[in-house]
From TrEMBL, chain A:
Protein name: Multiple sugar transport system permease protein
PROSITE patterns in the cross-refs: ABC_TM1
Organism placement in taxonomy: Bacteria, Bacillati, Actinomycetota, Actinomycetes, Micrococcales
InterPro entries: MetI-like, MetI-like_sf, Sugar_ABC_transporter
Pfam family, one: BPD_transp_1
Organism, as annotated: Pseudarthrobacter enclensis
UniProt similarity note: Belongs to the binding-protein-dependent transport system permease family.
Cited SUPFAM superfamilies: MetI-like (SSF161098)
From TrEMBL, chain B:
Annotated family: Belongs to the binding-protein-dependent transport system permease family.
Biased composition (Basic and acidic residues): 13-24
Gene3D superfamilies, A to Z: MetI-like
Organism: Pseudarthrobacter enclensis
InterPro entries in UniProt: BP-dep_ABC_trans_perm, MetI-like, MetI-like_sf
Metal-binding is among the record's keywords: no
Protein's membrane topology: Multi-pass membrane protein
Pfam families: BPD_transp_1
Transmembrane intervals: 33-52, 97-118, 127-149, 161-184, 205-227, 262-285
Location of the ABC transmembrane type-1 domain: 93-285
Positions of region (Disordered): 1-24
Primary location group: membrane
Subcellular localization(s) per the UniProt record: Cell membrane
Name this polypeptide is given: Multiple sugar transport system permease protein
Length: 345, 299
């Protein structure tokens, strides 16, 4: 990528500029674009190089590692076996939930081992993603609609929603761990005695509730920013035309806020798919709250290369979801961020 | 004459009735707004309030349910900094400040140039670069950790500060570039043009005219960068040692006097200490921060 941005002469003007054959254009103009290109490549170089070192290098080496066998003790002979090329064996092992057998070859992983948890971790990750993002979207929209109204104390509400956002996730996890303790306030408030982190569904809902509490404000603020882009005259005109509040919401608010809403949902979805801190601290991944990220972390100490394969699978899953969002659901993040420098004027 | 007066008064009465109905509706809507706002306030603040109240409660009354502060004590804060059970909360605070500071400064120093180029210049491949940077900010941390774990083990960097700082840059830098690009697009760039007309070079115009104007944007971005580094847990939980761990890891691993007893009140005290500066920072610079958070999403 860096080479492409190198100070090569610019052949065609950047998108948004006039076509080259259009109107006689002075040599100065060409020079100007070329010099801007040179400037840009110098200014961008540090960022691109830094990101290449801290992101591209690890990804490439993770992919290389994922095709290697993990060195370790052979369970059958007790002798040390060296690594070596593994082909796609690591990937097959995860997807088919196979573990290497003492006699060589592979067998289905016994329950409880990391190798046998791939599909349940995937299901848990998607459960968390779908449920938290759905709840956050609905609640966030509601909060944004309230904050968009005029009332005394509005600035207080806008300040208050920033509080859960500002608390570090690790602290949030500990706070909800305390709230959901057996003798904690949640059980006392609702007069129940649930071992929240002790069995599957309470543990899952504990994670969902804590995540929704923490991240709904972010959603609400993004949606609020979208709502504020809608001119008040549009609503006034619709009111004069005798529309009901529900019609105004469905026919004006929703379509006009959709671009901002889609970006917010995309951001939150990708964030939820890599969820780690909250379940790791709140439930320790017990009772089927192990997400893909937690599974990778648990695997690292048992074998780098198998962990690299799993993290590559996780990366591919997240990439596919992002692709589907951008391609089919119209969440155009780059365009949304106003990449057309001239569009502003 | 009389009929006209009667008509007029009837009309006035009807108008009055209509106005009163409208006022009632208005009042009703206002009431609903306030009720909803109260629910939002309660939902956002109650758990945070519970953390602070518990932080000031005596250990023996950990599970006290009264809403107002009871059995108030500062012991928990002393316990939080106590190192006799293997906790190093004080050290962790310093570590977090140091790591967050370095990550923020480095990301801003590198990112400010990229943001300027992306906001201001026309060049080939701009979409590609923006897409790459956005993609980088959405990147899952676990995809980085495995190779880094192996690499840092091999070169003996496990548990060092640089092993925590470098991966942090990978997600703070894209955020920095992205936020600053949106801010820079909003600035009055005509001033740069006039500076150039007055004989400045592009570099001089940037340094003398744009930098001072950009200071608030850069400051806000710095706060956002620092917060995201301060909150980082995944990388730190795997690559830090007892000596270099940041506060998030220290709080997650906080141990009590007895292994089977979780020191909730001390953890809440530690959580309060970690959170209060952020909350103050965020509330003071509320407008700017919201603008920075939502920058790019709506423009």
């Amino acid at each position: 990528m860096a080479t492409e941005l190198g100070p090569t002469p610019v052949k065609a003007p950047a998108s948004g500029g006039a076509p080259a054959h259009h109107a006689p254009k002075g040599v100065g103009e060409d020079n100007r674009i070329a010099s801007q290109g040179r400037w840009a490549s110098w200014l961008l170089a540090p960022t691109i190089i830094a990101l290449a070192v801290v992101i591209v290098y690890p990804i490439v080496s993770a992919i290389v590692m994922s095709f290697q066998k993990d060195a370790g003790l052979d369970p059958a002979t007790g002798l040390f076996t060296a690594g070596g090329p593994a082909g796609i064996q690591n990937y097959v092992n995860w997807l088919a939930q196979q573990c290497s057998a003492p006699a060589g070859g592979t067998v289905a992983c016994p329950p409880g081992t990391l190798g046998g948890q791939f599909w349940s971790a995937t299901a848990t990750t998607f459960f968390f993603t779908v449920v938290t993002v759905a709840l956050e979207t609905v609640l966030g929209f509601w909060m944004a609609m309230i904050m968009a109204r005029e009332f005394r104390g509005r600035s207080l509400v806008r300040a208050a929603v920033l509080v859960p956002w500002a608390i570090p996730t690790a602290v949030t996890a500990k706070l909800w761990f305390f709230i959901f303790a057996f003798e904690g306030i949640a059980n006392k408030l609702f007069n129940v005695s649930i071992l929240w982190t002790g069995s599957e569904w309470p543990a899952k809902w504990a994670v969902v509730i804590a995540d929704v509490w923490k991240t709904t404000p972010f959603m609400a603020l993004l949606i609020l920013a979208g709502l504020q882009m809608i001119p008040a005259e549009v609503y006034e005109a619709a009111k004069v035309d005798g529309t009901s509040a529900w019609q105004r919401f469905r026919l004006i608010t929703l379509p006009l806020v959709k671009p901002a809403l889609m970006v917010a949902i995309l951001f939150r979805t990708l964030d939820a798919l890599r969820m780690f801190d909250l379940p790791y601290i709140l439930t320790g991944g017990a009772n089927n709250t192990t997400t893909l990220s937690i599974l990778v972390i648990s695997q690292i100490r048992q074998g780098f290369n198998a962990a690299a394969a799993l993290s590559t699978i996780t990366f591919i899953i997240i990439f596919l979801v992002a692709f589907i969002f951008v391609r089919f659901l119209g969440a155009n993040v780059v365009e949304q961020s106003g990449a057309t420098g001239k569009g502003k004027k | 004459m009389t009929t006209a007066t009667a008509d007029a008064s009837a009309l006035r009465a009807r108008q009055d009735r209509g106005r009163r109905a409208a006022q009632n509706r208005e009042k009703w809507a206002q009431g609903r707004t306030y009720l909803s706002a109260a629910i939002v306030l309660l939902w956002c603040l109650a758990p945070a309030y519970w953390m602070v109240v518990t932080a000031f409660r005596e250990v023996g009354f950990t599970y006290d349910t009264s809403i107002l502060p009871t059995h108030v004590t500062l012991d928990n804060f002393r316990t939080a900094f106590d190192t006799s059970f293997g906790n190093r909360f004080g050290q962790a605070l310093l570590n977090s400040v140091f790591i967050g500071g370095v990550v923020t400064v480095v990301s801003l120093l590198i990112g400010v140039f990229a943001a300027y180029a992306l906001a201001r210049l026309n060049f080939k491949g701009k979409f590609l670069v923006l897409g790459f940077i956005l993609g980088a900010s959405m990147f899952p941390g676990v995809a980085l950790i495995t190779p880094l774990f192996q690499l840092f083990t091999n070169i003996g960097w496990m548990g060092t500060y640089q092993a925590l700082i470098i991966p942090n840059i990978s997600f703070v830098l894209p955020l920095t570039v992205y936020t600053m690009t949106s801010f820079f697009r909003e600035m009055p760039w005509e001033l740069e043009e006039s500076a150039r007309v007055d004989g400045c070079t592009q570099g001089q115009a940037f340094r003398k005219v744009i930098m001072p104007l950009a200071a608030p944007a850069i400051f806000t971005t710095a706060i956002l960068a620092f917060i995201s580094s301060w909150n980082e847990f995944l990388i730190a939980s795997q690559l830090s040692s007892d000596a270099t761990q940041p506060v998030t890891v220290a709080i997650a691993n906080f141990a009590g006097a007895q292994p089977n007893q979780i020191p909730y009140t001390a953890i809440m005290a530690a959580g309060t200490i970690v959170t209060i500066p952020l909350v103050i920072l965020v509330l003071v610079f509320q407008r700017k921060i919201v603008a920075g958070l939502t920058a790019g999403a709506v423009k």
